[in-house]
Amino acid sequence: MKGGAWLKRYYGGKIRRILRQASKALKDKGYRVTRIYEMHDADYVWGITLCPPAHPPHPDNQWTHDNDVDIRFSILDSKDSDGTPGCMNFSVDVTEVGGRMIGGLTPFNFTDRVWIPLTDHQEINERWQIMEDAGVDGLVGLITRNE
């Protein structure tokens, strides 16, 4: 994401904090949870994968169950998504490894307000507040109610 390195540094820390809190809450409920992983190309992505307590670990300790769950936060690059230059948005997706969508949040998705200019720090912060307001409890509740 051209011009977005500051987003990775600043909001990446906030995303990792939420993932650490979710990981702890899910471990307390018996889930096995991976370390936080990162993938950065056009978008910046952080996530964890978890295995519900009802599923035994695979003999070679691999994550192979189709209903293991990924929680993935992204800082989306508008240019990569639809060609709009110099804008961004946040997103969180909760999906089963097999592909079934459990839930997610991308503020103002499919509206003309979806993208925020990288120079509009106030709006970026307000958009991030929507993500924080959804909260760790919302993520954990969504996953535990899915079983």
Please summarize what this structure is.
By secondary structure, the chain is α+β, with helices and mostly antiparallel strands.
Question: What report would you give on this structure?
Answer:
The protein has 147 residues and is α+β, with helices and mostly antiparallel strands. The protein has one domain (5-145). The protein contains three helices and seven strands. Strands 1, 2, 3, 4, 5, 6 and 7 form a seven-stranded antiparallel sheet that branches. A hairpin with a 4-residue loop joins strand 5 (87-96) and strand 6. Helix 1 runs parallel beside helix 3 (121-145).
Please write out the topology.
Blueprint: H1 5-28, E1 32-33, E2 37-40, E3 44-51, E4 69-77, H2 78-82, E5 87-96, E6 101-105, E7 116-117, H3 121-145
Helix pairs in contact: 1-3
